[in-house]
């Protein structure tokens, strides 16, 4: 098998900044050599944004936002519906660009763009239905009006592992709320976001309403520190989030965050164990090679079915093909970079050396024809100490920990014994138990007998150190609106 990028030649990958209606190929911040994780070889040279480019984008966004809000609500609604249609027409190309971005397998890559389409379509329907309120006040003849208004220009910082997902979760509601957006994808995965920016222009959005600025940490700092930004939405890790919050504090810029997780997946004895094994494998080390904030990396199994579940679970992992992300049969791709590869292998080695669990399968870098790429075998540690780094720190790779529990309260205690709270998973046939656990688990989302499947109708976000913002539902729209109260004396 030869791993290649023949599905899209590198010379047609979008690599320049999108500011206003212009493609900018030279910038104050220079460029970044993008490495394709499946081969470890250069894919394209990407232009990076610095302060000058951020400043120019803010100016373009301000002008576009005024034009956007001058349109009737019906016209803005229709343009966003046109944008959803345009994204739908390019699901294949956006999927292939996502493969080039971070080597997510092609069998799942178009799903990122499909999610973006569904969110754009959902929030388009809110444009002409958003309404304010009025409330009684002490002056009984007064009229008290409560409105929700846009922030103006918002900055959306996307992680490398899902730029098109962030387009749906954050860019769509920001536009529906009346804002202009500066989208900063990671320099490690810029291609699908840049093509989305082009699609916005083609669909009729005012030039500058969506600007796309791939950037590294310096460019991110320039965006967050710019006084013309009304709000920041950041998706990523806790360490970077602290820097974003500290930088934004200088201008008192509000920040919403969606951060990491160390999610528990609780398997009860009454569950359909075959289904539970498949879901645990996909939600754990297989999906995006574990590089997901939603990864169910702590698997809790009731003692009475532990051995049977492990047998089924390991069989699913063993049958999952690893290889070329452009091969439709492949389920497991590489991790994002050489540095991530060595970091994850270091976590595995430390866990083995410290005896934090029993290495049951995987644990090595793939060799042979995959040897130049950043592939790690799906890795499972059994009987893991829940207070060990293996169970408490986000690995962000194809590594999961399996633990035993006896009763419901044991599972709840183990699951909640973490500083994170983004997702939790429960496999059970007992409806009463499902409801009880959904209320007891300290998590922003609880998924019963299924994998995480973010939909525009449901708010998604974290508890504890997994973030403060919400994406989806009316809550996601409100993230990009500020409240104004007007009182009229009659």
Record field, number of beta strands? 21
Largest sheet: 7 strands, mixed
Strand order, biggest sheet? Answer: 14-15-16-13-12-18-19
Domain module tally: 2
Helix content: 25-40%
Question: Strands, helices and their partners?
Answer:
Layout: E1 17-19, E2 22-24, E3 31-36, E4 41-47, H1 51-70, H2 73-89, H3 91-102, H4 110-124, E5 133-134, E6 143-150, E7 153-157, H5 163-176, E8 180-184, H6 191-202, E9 210-212, H7 217-225, E10 231-235, H8 238-249, E11 255-258, E12 264-267, H9 273-286, E13 298-302, H10 306-319, H11 338-354, E14 358-361, E15 379-382, H12 389-392, E16 399-405, H13 408-416, E17 420-421, E18 423-427, H14 431-440, E19 445-448, E20 463-464, H15 473-478, E21 481-488
Parallel strand pairs: 7-8, 7-10, 8-9, 10-11, 12-13, 12-18, 13-16, 15-16, 18-19
Antiparallel strand pairs: 1-2, 3-4, 5-6, 6-21, 14-15, 17-20
Helix pairs in contact: 2-4, 3-4, 3-6, 4-5, 9-10
Quick synopsis:
The chain has helices at residues 51-70, 73-89, 91-102, 110-124, 163-176, 191-202, 217-225, 238-249, 273-286, 306-319, 338-354, 389-392, 408-416, 431-440, 473-478, and strands spanning 17-19, 22-24, 31-36, 41-47, 133-134, 143-150, 153-157, 180-184, 210-212, 231-235, 255-258, 264-267, 298-302, 358-361, 379-382, 399-405, 420-421, 423-427, 445-448, 463-464, 481-488. With 490 residues, the chain is of the alpha/beta class.
